[in-house]
Design brief:
Its EC number is 3.2.1.23. It catalyses: Hydrolysis of terminal non-reducing beta-D-galactose residues in beta-D-galactosides. It holds the Pfam family Glyco_hydro_35. Keywords: Glycosidase, Hydrolase, Signal. Belongs to the glycosyl hydrolase 35 family. Helices cover 17% and strands 29% of the residues. By secondary structure, the protein is an alpha+beta fold. It has 3 domains: 267 residues, Glycosidases (TIM Barrel, Alpha-Beta Barrel), CATH 3.20.20; 163 residues, Jelly Rolls (Sandwich); 106 residues, Jelly Rolls (Sandwich). The strands form 10 sheets. It has a 7-stranded parallel β-sheet, covered by helices on one side. Strands 22-32-23-28-25-26 form a 6-stranded antiparallel β-sheet. A 5-stranded antiparallel β-sheet has the order 13-14-15-18-19. A hairpin with a 4-residue loop joins strand 1 and strand 2. The longest helix is centred in the N-terminal third of the chain and has 20 residues. It is globular. The structure holds 2-acetamido-2-deoxy-beta-D-glucopyranose (6 copies). One 2-acetamido-2-deoxy-beta-D-glucopyranose binds next to loops.
């Protein structure tokens, strides 16, 4: 049986690859549809930003998108990655846009290319290269000649590049759309295009929300996003795009912010690691199928929308030949029944039923038929592997980063300077150093007052870390200091954590210690302003200059002297990659804040900052009612991000180097590796559920419960829970309800063991 299925799958795959060669398309539109080669279409799209994964991951991500029912992949183009230095372009590796477009084409999907050049996207500086800001007279995103000239040059470069590779649909390529008049938001059913000759497009349907350091992780229930999608097509929508379908990872220093996490998981249908997130992926797949069953009717006419009762909305797309209906209950609390064309339909609160052919309900957005599973991390040390993974990280070595000025690029001024215009955002790190003599102030209750534009400040007084403080736009801190007679040193390390990516004039936002800096409460009672004293500045760290992130340079000191909880320390170790093919993460528990590199490639900034919202978290969230990003939160009381993705393709089987720069202090020997896999499957079915969408046409009647292992090499090893009645909870936390029939677990176990017997 399994063999036969494989043959069928292979066949389909060949067919889809074959299909791309006949792509060459004439793409136009009218008020109702996108018209591709004369065929009127409604399309479903999902965002995958190519630099947030690796070229090795792209084919799998795009295949899973296709399997999930998408027609189209959408991406921004990230100017600051492609032109890090003015006139010097980069289109290699994760920035290989042409390869990404060709991968989309090879899977037989369309591509929407949003060239920007402004992208927002929680991306550093909204995608603008920082050098753009240093062009005299420039103002971003407005009618400004220097800006328009640069924007035109970059946009032309990208368009020409795509043309040269024949990637536009008119040339036989996958790109069907570039910049468009559209709607972004959690819901877009009320949106109207700026011309009545244009179709209704939704470019950013936020499938979840981004994570930030120190805040709980938002998630969006599958029932609610399914509701939003169905509502959009119910009210005349033509194309919607999930933002994100795969969020991925903000590698290196690419996060915007400040304080956007390195993980850009977004609670998307594909998780940060590319694993299918259930039930979201499967439920949306069913929604897509249901909409596609209506496609002919959707493109044939505008909907007739009526409201037969409060909170009930019925949309019918009907011509002589075709019909499709959407029945919505937009009420937040009450279920409802609707009479439609002689039949009665039951609608849960906040749900839409889809009726291709206007007769049978194939899907209700609040009823999930798709199976669920739990993908979880296993630390190798908890496995019965030969040798724990802790043993596979060996030979920790270290180098201390000097406190204060240590590089020849230092310079002095009798004032404080803004950080970004000085560093050009080439590094997160910028030193402000001052030395000051006192005759006798040693017994005084002296306070050092510092004002900074952010984002993180480490203040060292006489070589000792006196305070770490974090803030967006404003850090205002009083640090009690003990001065000594004679020379005192004040070394302030200012650290950026991702540049602002949105808001009016966001490009003007500065960082660093712009003052005032004062000493209050000296022995003679006076306050002195240090802002206009002689400060010495240094761009970047000594370790960056020495290329320590590469691991093989510098005088690394031995394990026997390894310091713990020491600020400003570089650590390095060798490790053997976790075996197998499951995605890999590093658990940085034990460390505090810094950046990490694997084999010289930055896996991003890490920060174990704890989630401070202790009240607002919930495991299960009521999907009913309008969603917004604080509505459903998880991760309270835990570090906002402990696990950091290391792409498989960056690893060798053995002899890998991990380097990290720790700002505040930690214990690197606690660091472990973990792999992510799907360990548990859940499925539920209700007698009132319509049959699965894919069974609908094949004549199967009644509800069907199915379980399928996500990977070909997996088998079901045990059944943990089974209930027939009114069970409660979510996958992993089920419990029996008030009504529950006896012996279900043993019946299911028996079925499973006979199945295993049959197939073995
Ligand atoms: C493309 O399609 C439109 C409308 O369907 C048609 O008017 C136009 O002539 C076509 N263009 C080409 C190059 O075939
Ligand atoms: C500062 O830079 C100068 C050269 O510009 C160098 O001679 C000096 O040693 C540097 N200072 C420190 C503390 O490294
Ligand atoms: C107080 O002491 C500081 C530091 O010793 C000195 O700079 C300042 O001039 C003194 N102020 C007065 C009013 O004596
Ligand atoms: C690694 O070393 C190369 C060559 O020395 C250098 O160009 C590169 O910038 C280094 N990478 C990092 C992350 O320091
Ligand atoms: C491990 O890799 C480092 C740097 O990539 C190299 O210098 C070293 O020779 C390698 N060691 C082994 C045993 O292969
Ligand atoms: C990704 C994105 O564009 N997010 C924006 C969505 O809209 C909200 C509110 O309208 C903004 O706060 C986000 O920045």
């Amino acid at each position: 049986m399994r063999g036969t299925q494989n043959v069928v799958l292979l066949l389909l795959w060949f067919l889809s690859v074959y299909a791309i060669t006949s792509f060459c398309a004439n793409v136009t539109y009218d008020s109702r549809a996108l018209v591709i080669d004369g065929k009127r279409r409604v399309l479903i799209s999902g965002a995958i930003h190519y630099p947030r994964s690796t070229p090795e991951m792209w084919p799998d991500l795009i295949q899973k998108s296709k399997d999930g029912g998408l027609d189209t992949i959408e991406t921004y183009v990230f100017w600051n990655l492609h032109e890090p230095v003015q006139g010097q372009y980069n289109f290699e590796g994760r920035t290989d846009l042409v390869k990404f477009a060709k991968t989309v084409a090879a899977k037989g999907l369309y591509l929407i290319l949003r060239i920007g050049p402004y992208v927002c996207a929680e991306w550093n500086y909204g995608g603008f290269p920082f050098w753009l800001h240093l062009i005299p007279g420039i103002k971003f995103r407005t009618d400004n000649e220097p800006f328009k000239a640069e924007m035109q040059r970059f946009t032309t470069k990208i368009v020409d590049m795509m043309k040269q590779e024949n990637l536009f649909a008119s040339q036989g390529g996958p790109i069907i759309l570039a910049q468009i008049n559209t709607c972004n938001g959690f819901y877009c059913d009320q949106f109207t295009p700026n011309s009545n000759t244009k179709p209704k497009f939704w470019t950013e349907n936020w499938s979840g929300w981004y994570f930030t350091y120190g805040n709980a992780a938002p998630f969006r229930p599958a029932e609610d996003i399914a509701f939003a999608v169905a509502r959009f097509y119910q009210r005349g929508g033509t194309l919607q795009n999930y933002y994100m379908y795969h969020g991925g990872t903000n590698f290196g220093r690419t996060t915007g912010g400040p304080f956007i996490s390195t993980s850009y998981d977004y609670d998307a249908a594909l998780d940060e690691y590319g694993i299918i997130r259930q039930p979201k992926w499967g439920h949306l797949k069913d929604v897509h199928k249901a909409i596609k069953l209506c496609e002919e009717a959707l493109v044939a006419t505008d909907p007739t929308i009526t409201s037969p009762a409060p909170n009930i909305e019925v949309a019918v797309y009907k011509t002589e030949d075709v019909c499709a209906a959407f029945l919505a209950n937009i009420g937040v609390t009450s279920e409802a029944t609707v009479n439609f064309e002689g039949s009665t339909y039951h609608l849960p609160a906040w749900s839409v039923s889809i009726l291709p052919g206007c007769k049978n309900v194939v899907l209700n957005t609040a009823q999930i038929n798709s199976e669920s599973w739990i993908a979880s991390f296993t630390t190798e040390s908890s496995k019965e592997a030969v040798g724990s993974l802790e043993d596979s990280i060996t030979g920790w070595r270290w180098i201390d980063e000097p406190i204060g000025i240590s590089k020849n690029n230092n310079f002095s001024k009798y004032r404080l300077v803004e950080q970004l215009t000085t560093t050009g955002d080439t590094t997160d790190y910028f030193w402000y150093s001052l030395s000051i003599d006192f005759e006798d102030d040693t017994s005084a209750q002296t306070v050092l007052h510092i004002q900074s534009l952010g984002h993180t400040l480490h203040a060292f007084i006489n070589g000792k870390l006196a305070r770490t403080e974090t803030g967006n736009a404003k850090i205002d801190v009083d640090i009690p200091v003990k001065l000594v007679t004679g020379k005192n040193t004040i070394d302030l390390l200012s650290v950026t954590v991702g540049l602002q990516n949105y808001g009016a004039f966001f490009e003007e936002t500065g960082a660093g210690i712009t003052g005032p800096v004062t000493l209050k409460g000296l022995k003679n009672g006076s306050t002195i302003d240090l802002s206009s004293r002689k400060w010495t500045f240094q761009v970047g760290l000594k370790g960056e200059e020495l290329s320590l992130p590469n691991g093989s340079y510098g005088q690394w000191k031995p394990h026997s002297t390894l310091p713990k909880n020491q600020p400003l320390t570089w650590y390095k170790a060798n490790f053997v990659a976790p075996s197998g093919t499951n995605p890999v993460a590093i658990d940085f528990t034990g460390m505090w804040k810094g950046e990490a590199w694997v084999n010289g490639q930055s896996i991003g900034r890490y920060w174990l900052k704890e989630v401070r919202t202790h009240g607002g978290c919930t495991d299960s969230c009521d999907y009913r009612g309008a969603y917004n990003s604080p509505k459903c939160l998880k991760n309270c009381g835990k570090p906002s991000q402990a696990l950091y993705h290391v792409p498989r393709s960056w690893l060798q089987p053995d002899n890998n180097t991990l380097v990290l720069f720790e700002e505040s202090g930690g214990n690197p020997t606690w660091i472990t590796f973990a792999t992510k896999q799907i360990g548990s499957l859940c499925s539920s079915v209700s007698e009132s559920h319509p049959p699965p969408v894919d069974k609908w046409k094949s004549g199967t009647v009644g509800p069907v419960l199915s379980l399928q292992c996500p990977y070909p090499n997996q088998v079901i090893s045990s059944i943990k829970f089974a209930s027939f009645g009114t069970p409660r909870g979510t996958c992993g936390n089920f419990e029996h309800g008030d009504c529950s029939s006896d012996g279900v677990l043993s019946i299911v176990q028996k079925v499973l063991s006979s199945f295993l017997f049959l197939t073995s």
